[in-house]
Predict the 3D structure of the following.
Amino acid sequence: MGVFDPIIELSKGLGETLRSFLVEKTVTVQYPEEKRPVHPRFRGRHVLKRYENGLEKCIGCSLCAAACPADAIFVEASENTDEKRFSPGERYASTYEINMLRCIYCGFCEDACPTEAIVLGDNYELSFYDRREAIYGKEMLLEPVPSEQMLTPRKVEAGVYTRSVPEMKDPTD
Amino acid sequence: MDWTIWLEWILKGLVLCLILLTGFAYLTLYERRALARIQVRVGPNRAGPQGLLQPIADAVKLIFKEELTPGKVYKTVFFLAPVLTVVPSLIIAAVVPLGSSFTLFGREITLYVADLNVGVLYLTSIASIAVYGIVLAGWSSNNKYAMLGGIRSSAQMISYELSLGLCFVIAILLGDSMNLNEIVAAQEEVWFVLVQPAGALVFLIVTLAEVNRAPFDMPEAEQELTAGYHSEYSGMKFALFFMAEYQKMIVISMIAATLFFGGYREFWFLKDTFFSVDAVWKIGSFQTQAWFLGPIYLLLKVVVLLFFMIWIRATWPRIRYDRLMAFGWKVLLPLSLVLAFITATGILLAQELNNPMIYSIGIPVVSSLVALLTVVLIYRELRRKSHGRF
């Protein structure tokens, strides 16, 4: 240790801050304009999926509501007819509500779903002005139809969509 | 007395106040941006282009904020303390020359509010009044933390004022006058920082302590005293303390620039060039003296000095309180005393022996050696205290 070591150390500190002032690039993300992509397995706001033909995957079985540890999900099922078909099989969810203030984004609903209808998406911008707005209805959760002709409910041929749970090629997936 | 003189004084005073107030507003932005940049952040950049309207947003917020007056405060003093802190920080700038002079409507207008022949004395006296505001704020708040902050502040500022005064003495000796205009004029050939580098360094350290900036921000050490003397203040009363602190920073940088860095004058090597304050600019048939360069040069110097303050705040941790006092009394006071002595002796010897080399070489070399010796002595003292553990 030399006599001037304390002075040298102090100057080193000054040099370090000056270096970061002049050289280093800021790490700030200018959030609303610039968004960082989320992780592949990120659990954000729920999305209710559709099949490629536009029918809703959700069959209103309420397994997600049963699995939900926070009791955030409310499902009410109604009967499908071939005249007014929402989803394959007997029933569809006429009401599907998630209280985003109760939801803990654990993903159990995703695991419980037999048709892979509910998926936690990548949207994390959830903000509301009052608590009533925090209850997201089906129209907010349902993903848009792939094309104009595939709207639900729609009239379909009788006897085609009889099975509510699709046959999955790889059940472990 | 002519009424136009009154008008000139009032206008100049108003302009100076406006300069300091906008300076304060933009210093907060400057500090936040520079500090952010050092910490690899961006800082406020949303309000207006590059965040230039941020100070206005802050001001609006502070004005509309609810002001709380705790139940057991000493009301009169509690209300008076912020005012007592702000006013000195504004009026202290009156004697600082911002530039030379220009002619308007056939009369010469000087770029300072008051041409005081004891300007430096005025600075020291006003600087000490600022302590009252802080102490009274701490005491009248009826809060232990505020009280401790106020006590710390008074002790610290009184201790460091001695060294500050001695640094003023150095500048007075070198400038051969207490008038700040004459001190600036004396730096036409060479800045006093080159004649007395150690003195300028001590001055800069002491100014940090005087304006309660890091690493000497004892009175408002957040980790120990919540916010120190202004713990109980909110809204605009808090803003006044904040304002006083930042205005003091600006003013003390202006004083440092005036006393040691040539004031509003150009760099000494630009003396006879186009960029000199005395140069005459000709644009076609229009001819003017380049007086407007004075404020620009002063602004540049102030911005650089302020950057040093911000830079130091971003780098060094706060010094322990007993060490702060020990540093002030046992190191800076003797050192500045010795430096004043060296300066005086050097000037006298240069006169008596008729040898300007003593002035231009002798004083800087001897005072730098004394400063280095001080570093060695501090090191040995610290080593002795720690029984050779470092």
